[in-house]
Design a protein that fits this description.
single chain; Rossmann fold; Argininosuccinate synthetase, chain A, domain 2; five-stranded antiparallel sheet; elongated
C-alpha cells in the first residue's frame, strides 16, 4: 500500500534513469511531479529539457544554475581544508551532492511538495548524501528512491520501459562505464573499470591529456589567495567559476589531476574509481605552499588532524551535521592569514612549486639563515632545549 503523496520534486537530468523515473513516479504514486535540474558545471545540453520533461508527465521543470555557489561555498571550503578522502580522492562528486540536494529541498518548499525523489542506486554513496541533506534541512520530508523500490533490474529493463511508453532516450543497453561530471572533476566507475588490475583506457578521459603526450615545455603561473581562497591567476582577478574553469584547462593541458583508487564506500563495499581533478589538484599544491609560510606550526598540525574527519564527513554526506559546522568554522579561522602569491610550474602531470610570498609570512630569513644572523637567534639555547627533550629518553637507561 503506497502512502498518499500529493506532489514530488524529482532530481531530473533527462537521461535514461530519470526519464523512466518520472513516468514511474506518476504511475506509482498518481500525483504531480515537478522536475528539477541542477547545473553544477556538468556541461550537459539543457536545451529541450523542459519540453521532454513535460511530455513525460512533469508539471514543470526548474533549471537552477548552482555553479557559483558550488565553487564558492563547497569547493573553496575543501581547498581551505586540503581535504582528501583516504589520502587520494579530492571529493568532487561528494561536494556536489549537498548543494544539489539543498536546492531541491528549497524547491520542494516553494512548491509545497511533500516528497522528493532522486536517481541514486541502493549500492552507492550518493543515496546517503542526498537523503542526509534532505532530512537535515526538512526533517518531515518523504523520500522516494526508485532504485530501491521498483522492479527494474538494469538498463535493459529501463530501455524497454521507455520504449513501451514512447519516451525518447538515446541510451543503449551497453554501458562500458559510468561518469559523473561537474565543474570540479569527472569521475569514472563501473563496467570496464570494475577490475582493479585493468588500467583505465586512455579514451575515457575528458579533461586531461595523458602526461606522456602533454606538451614538452613547462608553463609557469602565479596563483594569488585571499584568506585561503584563490582570487587571481598571474595577477588577473577571476570570479570563482571562471578561475576554476581556467585552472581546469591549464591542468588538463599538462596532464595534471588524474587519480585511480579503490575506495571504501560508506555503505561498506570497496569500489574502484578513476578521477580527473586538474584545477583543484593545482590549487591544493599552491594552497599548502602558501600555508607553509603563513600558518603557525601547531595550528597547521591541528588543522591537518581535523582534515581526515573533514574529508570523511563530506564523503559520507554529513555536510549539514552539527559537528561539520564546527569543523568548517575552525577551518575558516585557520585561513585568516593565508593570503599571498604562489609561483608554480605545470609540467607533464606535475605541479612544481618554485616560490611563495605573503605579507603575513612567518618565515624570517634573518633567523633561519645559516650565515651570520646578527644575534637574532642564540644557538646556545638549543642545548637546554635538547636536554629537556632527551630527559625521558635518558631516564629509561639510567641505573
Amino acid at each position: 500500500m503506497v502512502n498518499k503523496i500529493n506532489k514530488i520534486v524529482l532530481a531530473y537530468s533527462g537521461g535514461l534513469d530519470t526519464s523512466a523515473m518520472l513516468l514511474w513516479l506518476r504511475e506509482t504514486y498518481g500525483c504531480e511531479v515537478v522536475c528539477y535540474c541542477a547545473d553544477v558545471g556538468q556541461g550537459e545540453e539543457l536545451s529541450g529539457l523542459e519540453e521532454k520533461a513535460k511530455a513525460t508527465g512533469a508539471s514543470k521543470l526548474y533549471v537552477e544554475d548552482l555553479r557559483e555557489e558550488f565553487v564558492r561555498d563547497f569547493v573553496w571550503t575543501a581547498v581551505k581544508a586540503n581535504a582528501l578522502y583516504e589520502g587520494v580522492y579530492l571529493l568532487g562528486t561528494s561536494l556536489a551532492r549537498p548543494v544539489i540536494a539543498k536546492r531541491q529541498i528549497e524547491i520542494a518548499r516553494l512548491e509545497n511538495a511533500d516528497a522528493v525523489a532522486h536517481g541514486a542506486t541502493g549500492k552507492g554513496n550518493d543515496q546517503v548524501r542526498f537523503e542526509l541533506t534532505y532530512y537535515a534541512l526538512q526533517p518531515d520530508i518523504k523520500v522516494i528512491a526508485p532504485w530501491r523500490e521498483w522492479e527494474f533490474k538494469g538498463r535493459a529493463d529501463l530501455i524497454a520501459y521507455c520504449e513501451k511508453y514512447g519516451i525518447p532516450v538515446t541510451a543503449t543497453a551497453e554501458k562500458p562505464y559510468s561518469t559523473d561530471r561537474n565543474l570540479m572533476h569527472v569521475s569514472y566507475e563501473g563496467g570496464i573499470l570494475e577490475d582493479p588490475w585493468s588500467a583505465p583506457p586512455e579514451y575515457i578521459f575528458l579533461l586531461t591529456k595523458s602526461p606522456v603526450t602533454a606538451r614538452d615545455t613547462a608553463e609557469e603561473i602565479i596563483l594569488s589567495f585571499e584568506k585561503g581562497e584563490p582570487s587571481a591567476i598571474d595577477g588577473e582577478k577571476y570570479g570563482a567559476v571562471d578561475l576554476l574553469t581556467k585552472l581546469n584547462f591549464l591542468g588538463g593541458e599538462h596532464g595534471i589531476g588524474r587519480a585511480d583508487l579503490v575506495e571504501n564506500r560508506f555503505v561498506g563495499m570497496k569500489s574502484r574509481g578513476v578521477y580527473e581533478t586538474p584545477g583543484v589538484t593545482i590549487l591544493q599544491a599552491a594552497h599548502r605552499a602558501l600555508e607553509s609560510i603563513t600558518m603557525d606550526r601547531e595550528v597547521m598540525r591541528l588543522r591537518d588532524s581535523l582534515g581526515v574527519k573533514f574529508a570523511e564527513s563530506v564523503y559520507y554526506g554529513f555536510w549539514f551535521a552539527p559537528e561539520f559546522e564546527i569543523l568548517r568554522s575552525m577551518i575558516e579561522q585557520t585561513q585568516e592569514t593565508v593570503s599571498g602569491d604562489v609561483r608554480l610550474k605545470l609540467y607533464k602531470g606535475n605541479v612544481i612549486i618554485t616560490g611563495r610570498k605573503s605579507p603575513y609570512s612567518l618565515y624570517k630569513e634573518r633567523i633561519a639563515t645559516f650565515e651570520d644572523d646578527a644575534g637574532a637567534y642564540d644557538q646556545h639555547d638549543a642545548e637546554g632545549f635538547i636536554k629537556l627533550q632527551a630527559l625521558r629518553l635518558r631516564l629509561r637507561k639510567m641505573e
